[in-house]
């Protein structure tokens, strides 16, 4: 029996196990003993491990921070890193967010992010086991519990467990993602003595702001209210949106304010509302591996004379944060701003000819017939939490991105394809 036929015989069981995980609304909750992400997430973890135990694999729960299902022997192990926690269900669903199979689609929060893909990987591992494949390394499926909240699940895992020799996370898109830009979350702060102006715009630094508002108080007691609407987009692709803050700053700049407020608007208009690659600030870095720097002004707030701007910068993988920050800090200082670095994610980069990337790409191409090359992205994935890991699926080229959206789904046919790709990838890495 070949691999594809083996997986086909496991399809109904895989669907049932995915549905059993989707029925658990595993949103992070109040921590309890041995349940650091709360009861619901822990229930999902225990259920996933029980599925692995039922299949005859070795399983282990690491104090509720993470768990793993393992097959094979050997000193080194290959990892498949995924997560069982989900974002809140939210509103506007027309299908059951706790799991509903309609035709070829499995609906539910976590269907594509990341319960469905991790079950596809588990059934790929079962097919490997059923086929009796001889491997020189162990294969370990690691189930995290706080990916959506940025929690310490993998940091805690690594306190007792070694790093994998290679592996992937099925928590992004196909084909292999060999380059993930570095990410800087910055706050620009300036005290402005001018009174009588209130500004608020944006809700998250990593999103293109879709709303912005200014209220200007005049000496005669009247007020001018300016409201702008934009089109939201992810901070890694600001060119796909339309910034309401840019539009608001444009309106305010046209009003020709004097003093410190007017000078500040001049600078913001010229330096922050003209481009999304940092050209006006002199930080427009670029490399062949990952492309041009990406900059998004996600928030702006002015209240009681204190202006705060939230800036999200994604810099190319062959540069360092210092290449950005030294120039940017000097520019901000010249214009009266204080720059605060709130968070940094280092770049992740493996050359396209790296053995890990090549083996994953071979498994993908052999299964799909798609000859496109590896991807470079501005976003950050779960791969950054562990060494020797890159993102690899599950979303196939041309599919709509429904993660975190109402009516999130993945098709059974895509899951079966994922399982075949993942089985070939795991065997190639563990041979």
From TrEMBL:
Keywords on record: Dipeptidase, Hydrolase, Metal-binding, Metalloprotease, Protease, Zinc
This protein's record includes keyword NAD: no
InterPro entries reported in the protein's UniProt record: Bact_exopeptidase_dim_dom, M20A_pepV-rel, Peptidase_M20, Peptidase_M20A
Cofactor or coenzyme needed: Zn(2+)
Short name of any one Pfam family annotated for the protein: Peptidase_M20
UniProt GO MF annotations: succinyl-diaminopimelate desuccinylase activity
Domain of life, per lineage: Bacteria
EC number(s) stated in the UniProt entry for this protein: 3.5.1.18
Annotated NCBIfam families: dipeptidaselike
Family to which the UniProt record says this protein belongs: Belongs to the peptidase M20A family.
Protein name: Succinyl-diaminopimelate desuccinylase
Natural source organism: Youngiibacter multivorans
